[in-house]
Structures are given as structure tokens and as C-alpha cells.
Amino acid sequence: MKTRSFVQFVGPSVVLMILLLAAPLLTTLFLSVRNCTLDMEVVTVEESTPFGKKETVTQRARLDASGRAIQTCRFVGFEYYRKVLGYDPDPSPPAVAQAPGADAAAGPGAPLNEFQGALRFTLLYTFVTLPFVLGIGLLLALGVNAVSVRLRSVFISASLFPFIITPVVAALSIKWLFRDNGLVPQLLSNFGVQVYWMGQAWSAQFLIIVYGIWHVVPFAFIVFYAGLQSVPQDALEAATIDGASRWQRLRYVTLPHLMPLLVFVTLIHVMDAYRVFEPVIVLTQGAFTTSVQYLTYYILLQENNPYKASAAAVLTLVGILILLIPLLVRTWREQRGGA
Amino acid sequence: MKPKSLLRRLLVSAAVAALVPATAQARCDTLSDVKASEINIVGNAFPALQHIAKEMQACTKGGLKVQFKMTPQVKQEVEQAFGSGGKSAFDAAVVSMGVFADLNSKGQLQPMTDLVNKYRTKYKIEDNMLVKVNGEVMAIAFMQNAQNLFYRKDLFDKHGLKVPTTYAEMLAVAKTLKEKEPGIEFPIAQTFAKGWDSATEFTNIFAGYGGRFFKAGSAAPDFNGDAGVKALETMKAMTAYMTPNFLASNSDDVMNQFQQGKAAMGVLWASRASRMDDAAASKVVGKMDFAAAPAALAGGKAATHLWWDGVVMPKNLGGDRETVFQVLMEALDEETMRGGNDLTIWIRSGYKPTRFGTGVTASAKAGAPIWPTEPYFGLAHGEIGKVIPDVLSGAATPKQALDAAAAAYAKAATEKGFIK
Q: Is B102 inside any structural domain?
């Protein structure tokens, strides 16, 4: 292909990738090593509101000549990364008065650092959902492939349904099924089983994992189903003539043919699962189930700190890259081998 | 479809189409000296605001187009627009007092005193709608909200129970109801979900114990003392009478528990009160009543906070401030209030209180304070919301958790420049 044609084909997507992926990523990296503070001064103001008048001591930003808040920005290096990871060289600033040894031995021990807790659940979610997504997706694809053509469209539409629904809506439907007075607790109570699904770690985590499997299986299914359409029929027939059983045909002909798709679905699912967010915020609001992405959201919204949130976002990305290394290496080798 | 019914439908549609601009024109035709073609306003999404947004969008005089963006992320949208280096993407915003405090501390709001003076008579702007800082009008409030006590009057009457005025009484009533009322396994329902919800409950009860979040005259934390420990102990004691799902119970869940008749009392937002009588979703129509939020200490103030919602304009406003102001005031006039009287607790004197607002009025009478307005309060609230589940689930003691939150807050406030 001529260079000119190549550029014409590839150009638009490269421009879009630079604008929508590279530029935000670089901005996030830039923000994560900086910190900006407003120049605050303590003031006494008289406020009158619908509830009355009062004088309060508060802080106001100093303003410059044009009436804008004066802001000082500086390079802070990896300070926010260390803080997010829980490695903080200054764990107790002088501003906090703590009685010496107060309650040090009274509790059952300090809980995990937020990031460590979030990482633990995120990895649990990723690796528990993955085999189910691949396994159930493959079984569904094989099943639908085996039924008559007329029934296939019905099965395909029904199977795709969970994937089509917006994640927040899907998570809400699961929450409504399992919350107090929901369908599932009501049904179970008829058999004398009382489970409060968001009341303890195992069930809250179980719910989110079930949601993850239910929501992503259709994606795996449709990819595998498409792959099954291109399995070489002559190889399957030859295997049948050679006396291969149904299992052997699957094991030695179909699965090797689908292997690149298995790797593809794994890649996509690991990336998606590591960014799990909607079910966490909708189902449990983070109780027992803080995820890495949820942590970034919390820092951004509740702590209102875009710089620290950027560090958390970059760490999320690094996590995804680490998880993907084996798969990327494999794909790289295959592509090079193919060329 | 039959031709006759098609014709009828077309006629009805045409009539409606003709009517809408006519009404819109009538609503805003007194707008003077319109100097803008498009006005963008942002706000949250709740019934009263939907009603107001409709009024704003009806202002079409002189080809004017008013766009209202409804989003739950109003705080972030407003902070970005009002804080941007160029002109603000929004010409005005409808904000709650927490967001107002933040914007005002950064000097991002436009004073409206001159406009209020000019248009006070025309739009009947009342004095108690004005939010003034050092005498300058920085916002115009139109509604109030508060968390107050919801309780099942039928069950209280049946068992001869007194409406609790303190949390200790509430626990005693809960014990009685749990023993005597077989359908009520978990008598108390409150928003104890991790994060914003439970931190707000803490803020209410902590203030009830007389706690102060910060050391006097500074941003240094002071919520990890006795009042904080007592507030968390009260919350923990309540969980014995709440669904074990309490760590995921937000306002929707608590409303659902009341509507389904599974819980008998609890402190919840007044804006949810009218939903108790929504026959399509509620099994307790007419059975719920509302009172002041209980106090933390006997004889103390109601352990809740008063909130207002109002309109603000950015300092970096791009459009014509007078036109924007008139559109806002058209939408907040007496006619709007009368058309949506039951949607919220309006601040205008012409508002006719409904039974759903009685809890707020009672809480205000019982001395409920105003929600904290220090610009660093949000940081403390965020850190507290993270540690409360550790206490409620028994993973940490109240003191441990509050010390951890205070340390985390101090770091965050230092990073933001509030603690030097």
C-alpha cells in the first residue's frame, strides 16, 4: 500500500485516538504530579439566609486585581501516588490532636488501606468473573449453534438482553431484586432462609460478581457464536470420519479455532472488569466492595481533589496494563508470527 | 386508526402546539430590554426544580431560548463552569447551600444587590429569600429542606406510644414496637449507606451532641472528641433495630421500607414525605406522620440541619446579567409557587404549608441549626463517610475511626490550602 493511501486510511482514527485517548491520558499524568491551592484567608462574615442572620468565622480565597481567586500550583512528584497507595511518610500531621496511645489496642486492628482494599476486591471480581464469562458464554454459543435456525434469533435476542441494558439500570434492577422486600429475599423467606444481601461482605461481593457475570456473558456469547460460524466444516467432518467423539471434536477442532477469540474476550473483560464501577455505586455504595475505579470517583467527588484523583486514575491504568501484559505479549508474538 | 379519531388527534395536537407558545409568551412578556438570544442554566433533578425549569424554558420573548440542564452532578458542573478561566458555560445555576458556600468562598459568584433593588417590586422578591454576605445579595433562595422524623401514626396510636423527641426515646420506642408489632421486624429506617448518607446522619447527631467540626477560627479538625464518639455510639445502637442491609440504605431504600410498611420510624428528607401518600407505590397512605427530628440530648436542639436551595449567577458570566436575572425571577415568582405549592416547602410568604412540610417547620422550631457552610466542611464530611461503616460493622472503635478520619481530613485540607 502506498504511504499516502495508508495515511488516508489510518489518519482519522489516529487523530481521534490522540484527541480522545492520548490527550486526556497525558493531561491526567500531568495533573497527578501537581497540586494547586487557593490562597485562603480567615475572615469573619455576616451571612443572612432564610433562616436568619449570623456572623461566622470562615475562609475566603484572596482575589487578584481582576477579581479571580489567586491560585498557586506546584510540582509534587509522586506524593499523591504514595498517598493513594497508603505509603505516607507523614501519617499523623500535627493538626490532629491524638491522645497518646488512645484506643490503640481497643479495636480489632486497623482496616486495610483504602487502595489495598479496593485493589483486593477489584482483583477478586476480575478473576472470579472471568472463567464464568468465558465458560457460560461458550456453552451458550454452542447451545444456540446447535438449535434450529428458527429458534436461534429468539435465543440470540434473549441472550443479548442483559448486555444491551445500560449498566446503571441493570445494576438497579439487580438491587431491587435483592434489597429488603425484593423478590429474591421474599421467595427465600418462604423456605425459611433469611439473607440480607448487602449486610455482610460475602453476600455483597457475591451480588456484584453475579451482576458482572450476568451482564458480560452475552458479549462473550455473541463473539463465540460468530466464531462458531467460521469453524471449518471439512475439518469437523474429517474428525467425525476418524471416529472423534463430540467432546473430541470440540477439544481438538472447535476450541483451537476459537482460541484467538477466547484471548480477545479475556483481554476486553479484564480491562472492563478492572474498571468495575456501576454495580459498586448502585448496589452497595462501596460497603464491603470498594473498587479501584470507585475510589477514584470518591476522591474526585467527595474529597474534591482532581490531582489526587488523577494519581488514582493513573494507578488504575497501570493495574490494567500489568494484568494485560501476558495477553499482550501473546498477541504480539502471534501477530509477528503471522506476519 | 379511524379518520375521525385521527382528525381529532391532529386538532388536539394543533391546539396544544398553539397554546404552548401563547402561554410561554404570557409568562415572560414583561421581560424588559432582552439582550440575550440563549441562556443556559444548570441544576439538580427533583420535582420542584422540574416545575421551575419548565417556567424558565417558557421564556421565549424576542426569540430568547432558555436551556435548563438537569444533572445529579450539578456540583462538579457548576464548579467547572464558574471556575473556568474564560466565560462560564452556564449563565446561572440552581444550587443547594453546600455548593453555594463552596462557590462563594472562591469568590466565583456575582453580587445581585442592584438587580434585586431594581426588580424587587416587579417580582415581589421577599427579604427572607435573599442570601446576603456582608450585605451583598449573592443568592436568591426559593425552597427549604431538612431531614425530619417520619413515623407510623397508626402504630404509635395503637400501642399508646409517644412521638420520640430524643434518640434515647427512639430506641425505647423501637424496642417496644419490635416486641409488640409482629409485622415490624426492623422499626427504624435511616440512611446509613457508606459515604455521603451516613456522614450526613453523623453530622446531624454530632451537632445534636453540641459537637463542633473544627477548632474555633481554624480549619483544624475537632470532630474526633467525645461528641463524635457519642454520635457514632448512638448510630451503632440504632443498627440493632435496622435492617442488616443498613450500610447500603440510601434515601430510596429507606423510603421503600416506609412505603412497604416494614419500618415504623426514622429521620428522612422532607422532600420524600409526599411520596408516603403515593398510592401507586405506598402501602401506608395516610398512616405516616411527620415531626421534628429527635434531639441527641434531652431538652436539646433537633438533631438535623436546615438547607435552602436558590439561584446564583457566576462572576464570569458571558451573557447579559439583567436578562438572566429577569428570567430567573420570572421562574421564581408567586405564580410558579402557586402552581407547585405541594412540590416543596417554598420560602415565599404566600406558600400554603401541607402536612408533608410539618416535620421541617417543627425541626426549625426545635432549634435545628443551618447546614455547615465552611468551605472545608465537605472534605471532613467525605472522610467521615468513609470510616463510619468500620464502626457500624464492628471493625473499628468510634475513637479509632474518627482519629483516622481526622488525620485523613487534615491531610486533605492541607493539600487544598485550608490548613497552612
A: yes
In this structure, the answer to whether residues B157 and B85 fall within a common structural domain is: no
Are residues B185 and B262 both part of a single domain? Answer: yes
**Alpha-carbon dihedral sign for residues A12, A17, A19, A20:** positive
List the domain range (segments joined by +) for residue B200: 146-306+358-415
What is the mean predicted confidence (pLDDT) over B152-181? 97
**Choosing among A47, A49, A172, which should be mutated to test the B contact, i.e. which has the most B CBs within 10 A?**
A49
SS3 B144: strand
Residue B1 lies in a domain: no
| 3-state DSSP helix/strand/coil % of chain A, to nearest 5 | 65, 10, 25
Helix (H, G, I), strand (E, B) or coil at A63: strand
DSSP for residue A114: H
**In Å, how far is B4's CA from the nearest CA of chain A?**
39
> Are the CB atoms for B191 and B249 separated by under 8 Å?
yes
Asked if pLDDT for residue B3 goes beyond 80, the answer is: no
Please determine, for residue B20, whether its predicted confidence score (pLDDT) is greater than 70: no
B97: domain CATH number is: 3.40.190.10
pLDDT of B6 higher than 60: no
Which residue type is seen at B154? Answer: D
Chain A contact present for B375, CB below 8 A: yes
Last residue of a domain, one of B315, B336, B356: B356
**CATH class assigned to A124-289:** mainly alpha
| Helices and strands: H and E segment counts in chain A | 14, 4
Ranges of residues in chain A with a pLDDT under 70 are 89-112, 338-339
Q: A109 to chain B, minimum CA–CA distance in Å?
A: 7
Which sequence spans correspond to the domains of chain A? 124-289
Any domain includes B3: no
Residue A264, min C-alpha distance to chain B (Å) = 35
The cell for B90 is 452556564
Complex ipTM > 0.90: no
CA angle B400, B403, B404 (to 5 degrees): 85
Supply the pLDDT for residue A286.
87
State how far the Cα of A237 lies from the Cα of B241, in Å rounded to an integer.
67
